[in-house]
Every structure is written in structure tokens, then in C-alpha cells.
Amino acid sequence: MTEKLAWVEEELKALREAGLYNNIRTLGSPQGAWLVVDGKKVLNFCSNNYLGLANHPHMKETAKKAIDHFGVGPAAVRSIAGTMSIHLELERRLAEFKQVEGAISFQSGFNANLAVIPALMGRGDVIFSDELNHASIIDGCRLSRAKIVRYEHCNPNSLQGVIKQETDYRRRLIISDGVFSMDGDIAPMDKLADIADEHGIPLMTDDAHGEGVLGRGGRGIVDHFNLHGRVDIEVGTLSKAFGVMGGYVAGKREIVEWLRQQGRPFLFSSAATPADVAGCIAALDLLEESTALVDRLWENTRYFKAEMKKLGFDTGESETPITPVMLGEAPLAFQFSKKLFDEGLFAMALGYPTVPMGKARIRVMLSAMHNHDDLDQALGIFAKVGRELGVI
Ligand SMILES: Cc1ncc(COP(=O)(O)O)c(C=O)c1O
Hints:
Elements: H1 6-17, E1 34-37, E2 40-44, H2 57-70, H3 78-81, H4 85-98, E3 102-106, H5 109-120, E4 126-130, H6 135-144, E5 147-151, H7 156-165, E6 172-177, H8 189-199, E7 203-206, H9 221-224, E8 233-237, E9 247-251, H10 253-262, H11 264-267, H12 274-289, H13 292-311, E10 322-328, H14 330-342, E11 345-346, E12 348-350, E13 360-365, H15 372-388
The structure holds pyridoxal-5'-phosphate.
């Protein structure tokens, strides 16, 4: 340890003492209903692999062919050394899938937010942001140097109120997650679109947890509310339901064109790999071919939530496959998660500051990859641990 970095050791120690140090587990298998975690075979209720595509044969085959054809890396920033045709194909397919004028892909969903918000907003501008928006939206807003005005979570009246208060601005933007990743609730996008139209403010949503989950065949939150053409900017991730890695911005033609000129992660970071891009195209093939995976995801979600309620668990206000099992204090949630793991089930505990104080929980992520036996086995484990710890 060097003297000048002693403070880092001290901060790490403080994290450990506060019980906030994150010990990251090691996976020894591909993503699936079952995983090998720290050498132990366990049921997986942790990942964002909503449709089970992360290890799907069609995805792997397509990615391998792309490696044969294009190699393993793009070796450049697209705007400097040219773009591979496969990236343009993905963008065309995404725009078709989302029924929008255009799309531009990025290396991750996080990068997509860091690209689009600062490219559209700057000093003198005002961003109206849901108070529970994702960290990548918050960081994108901060990078933009615009004034950030938070409104109450999923509350259109609060949004109206703050818009009326902010009279001094150059440009304005409203941003909301589509599905909120901690509670699984859905933004009232129809009401946000009405407010955006009333005031002439562009509306942006981050649909990371709605992609492949909500709407017809997983087309996302805009399709869920039938708001085609009324949400100006849709950010998406290809790292969750799509099972690969990447992000994109979809929407109006001029925004996509502007991002090709001004989106900093597009201009200053190399493109996604051919294998990733091909995997994403393969995910679109599967989503467009059949709704079977999305249907199974929802069947599993309905079944699991109903049975958990029958057992006496509080699963919060979730309207999506994200299922919080509310436990209250963080130590109980961490103990619960550890006992689940001992019984052969992997599901993470979340406590403050990730969620508000006193609202610690286990976050169960359902997926189309689970079969009925997996779900019943999980329910049995939850019941056992819940009774042991006096939760039910
Ligand atoms: C709402 C939201 N936006 C963006 C991201 C980042 O996506 P990616 O993993 O593709 O960077 C996440 C991932 O946790 C998310 O939940």
C-alpha cells in the first residue's frame, strides 16, 4: 500500500465494516436456469437473461459465423475507420423492430445514455428526470451540464408541477425509465407523452427492462402503450433480454443522424464486436419469428408471483418479471439470500443505498428459461427459508 493511496484502503475498510462491501460471486457455467456459482450448482434467479437467449444455439451459431466472416474485433472507431456492414444491418433491423425512423447502436446501454443525453442537452437546458431513473441516465444528465430537475417517481402531477416552475431555459427534455429495475413497476408513459405534447418537450425513455418483455413480441414500452411516434428517443440495451451486449438509441431520423456526428461514445470508442452484433441480429430473428419465449416469460412470471403471494410473501408493486421479495432491513435480506444459496438458489439481496432504507429485498428475476420444475423447486426453497427466518 502506498501512502498516497492510503485513503482507498480506509474507504474499503469502511465499506466492509458497514456491511456494504460487495463480494462478487464467480460463475463457472454459461447463463441458464441452472448455474455453477462458486463451484456449486444452483438455480438461477439473478440474471437479466429474460428470454434465455444468452446461451441459445441460434445466437451462438450466428455469432460464430460472424467471427468467420468479420473477425473478432472492429479495430476502430466507426466514424474514423469506417463501419462494418453488420453494424448497419443491426441498426436497420432494430429500427424495423421498434417501428421507428432510425436506430444507432452503441457498445452498451450505459454508453447509449452517455451518448444521447449530452448530445442533446447542454448548459442553460433543463432535464426533467424521474427521481428513480437508472444510474446511467443520471450520469448522462450530469455530463450534459444541463440543470437536472427531479420529479416524484412515476407521478405525472409532480412532472406538471416542476415543468411549470422552470420558466428559464434554452431547451427541455423529459426522461423516464420504462420499467424500473428495483421494483419492476412501469412508468405511466401514456401520461408522460400527454404532458410532453402539451408543453412541446421531447420525451425520452430507457427501455432496458421493457425490451423483449413488454409490448407485442417484446417490442417494448412504446408498443405496450401504443405510443408509436410519440416518444422521441428510446434507449435500449442488448445486454438483457437480447442476451448479448450492447445498447442503442432508436427514434426520429434527425436524432440518429445527430448522434452519428455528436455522440461521444460513438465518436471516441471502438464499435461492438462482430460476434456481439451478429448475436443481437439473431435475437431479432428469434423475436420476430415467434412470441413463444415472451409468452413463456409471462406465464412463468404470473405463476411464480401468484404462488409467492399464496405463501404469504410481499412481492411489492411489480408489474413485470422483476419480482422484489420485500423483507425490510438489509441484514435480514442478506441472511435470506445466503440461506437461499445454501439451499441451492441464487438470488441477490439488495439493501440501502441501492434501495431506500427499510426496503431491503431479494430481487427475483424470472425468465423463459425456467421450466415448471425449476419454479416449483424455487418456491419450495423460498417457503423453507421464509419459515425458518419468520418471514411467512
Ligand atoms: C435502466 C437501465 N439502463 C441502462 C442499463 C445499462 O445497460 P448495459 O448493461 O447494456 O450497459 C441498465 C442495466 O442495468 C438499466 O437497468
